[in-house]
Write a structure and sequence with these properties.
Elements: H1 33-55
Bound molecules: zinc ion.
Zinc ion is lined by residues 4, 6, 14, 16, 24-25, 27-28.
Amino acid sequence: MARCGAPTKAGGRCRRPVVTGTSRCPVHQGQWSAYGVAQRKEKEAKEKKRKIRKKR
Ligand SMILES: [Zn+2]
């Protein structure tokens, strides 16, 4: 399982497992919402392309 890895106020790194489809845990998704949304869109676009290819 991938870890969140976001820097914490304590100086360490977040050890929570990431949410499937994103690169951050639920706690840090808020801070990185824009980043997460961009990644989601990219993944969705790739999946759509794959589906179209499969249909053809
Ligand atoms: Zn985190």
